[in-house]
Amino acid sequence: MYQRAILHLDMDAFFASVEVKKNSALAGLPLLVGGAGGRGVVTSCSYEARRFGIHAGMPMAIALRRCPDAKTIRGDFESYEQHSDIITEIIAEEGPVYEKASIDEFYVDISGMDRHIGCVKWSGELRERIIRETGLPISAGLSTNKLVSKVRAGESKPNGSGWVADGAERAFLSPLPVRKIPSIGSVTARKLSLMGIRKAGTLGQVPVTLLEREFGSMGREFHRRANGIDHRPVVPHAERKSFSSEHTFQTDTIDVEFLLRKLRSMTAQLAFDLRQAGRLAAGVTVKIRYTDFNTYTRQRRIPYTAHDQQLIPVAETLFRELFTRRQCIRLIGIRFDRLATGHTQLNLFTDTQENSQLLLAMDKVRKRFGKAALG
Fold it and tell me: What angle do CA 190, 191, 196 make, to 5 degrees?
């Protein structure tokens, strides 16, 4: 019996699976979803493609060299969002408390379910309902916390499920490679390997002081995670409706270039907020207030994105359409709405690898030095 029970649900190769559902002729084929052309990036791939060493985030050119016969699809995010909404509705109807971690990942807190129907039985029935009503594969993991449930779901892929008994968390993680632990990337795993630490069990036995010396404050977190310790709660799902920012000038201005520079900066900082929240926007609204306090707005619907390069030109265009009176402006504002949950990489359908890497580098600077660090 679980004192605390957390279920993790993870859609398998979500984008690729949706494309196969839409076109059954793609079933069994190596399928790549992502940016068209040689400079795009793979955002999702079928398990048939993964056998060639292809993975999400890989440049499309490299993926096609590894598997020249792969079928490539640009991707349709609106379709993926619709399927995600269906899954969310099912979970919301069945689950007591749930958290939508991304467009294709969910956590459900079912603590206390053992007193009624049993956590393992209930989890299996929920997973079967999702598969039945969506026609999509989904993997599930059940344990006492988020971390172990996520790893358990990952080990159950594709289209499987598993559970880890209360008290068996460390034993389950121990034989797994350290790379399986969330937050340990390839660079950290390589450094750990050079230290002779390749398994989670070994990592969990290393003195915390040594890990802190090598990895700073994250060393203690690595130690906790390797031992299956995770106290994070399931955060109840609540959709934020919009992201907005306004600036009132100390002195009213009619300098168009100055206004555009400020608007670009505000848009870039707000896009950073979108990416940090794991959100994408399909609506952009620009607002201006003249010196006489008359206020005007203009909005536009766009494809889902959180990328500066796609949002800034739209904001500039809306501003130019609004600024028709040759009068000083006292306030300018930008708002993103029509939001959807998703990883930043979802925007790579039309983005190049270089632009994506630049955006990631800029975000790292903003995280360390603040949103206004770049201009």
Answer: 90
Query: What tokens appear for 330 in the block?
Result: 């006292």
CA 34 from chain centre, in angstroms, equals 15
pLDDT for the residue numbered 346 = 43
What span, in angstroms and rounded, lies between the C-alpha atoms of 259 and 271? Answer: 18
User: What are the DSSP calls for 137-204, one per residue?
Assistant: -EEEEEESSHHHHHHHHHHT-SS-EEE--TT-HHHHHTTSBGGGSTT--HHHHHHHHHTT--BHHHHH
Long-range contacts of 15-22 (CB under 8 A, 24+ apart): 15/43, 15/44, 15/75, 15/80, 16/44, 16/45, 16/46, 16/49, 17/46, 17/136, 17/137, 18/79, 18/80, 18/83, 18/136, 19/73, 20/46, 21/135, 21/136, 22/79
Do strands 279-290 and 295-305 pair parallel, antiparallel, or not at all (unpaired)? antiparallel
The question of whether 105 is a catalytic residue gets the answer: yes
- 202 has pLDDT over 80: yes
Return d(Cα 367, Cα 373) in angstroms, integer: 9
Q: Pairing mode, if any, of strands 138-143 and 243-253? A: unpaired
Distance in angstroms (rounded) separating the CA atoms of residues 89 and 64: 37
Q: Could you report the per-residue pLDDT of 8-63, keeping only the tens digit for each?
A: 999 999 999 999 999 999 999 999 998 766 567 888 999 999 999 999 888 888 99
Q: What is the pLDDT of residues 64-114, one digit of tens each?
A: 999 999 999 988 877 888 899 899 999 998 888 999 988 899 999 999 887
CB 123 within 8 A of CB 161: yes
Rounded (10°) CA dihedral 255, 259, 262, 266: 170
Cβ within 8 Å of residue 273, ≥6 positions away: 243, 371
More confident residue, 348 or 374: 374
State pTM to two decimals: 0.67
Give the whole-angstrom CA distance, residue 344 versus residue 311.
14
Burial of 107 (0-12, 13-18, 19+ CB in 10 A): buried
Report the amino acid identity of residue 282.
A
Choose, from 19, 48, 99, 105, the residue flagged as catalytic: 105
* 233: three-class secondary structure by DSSP: coil
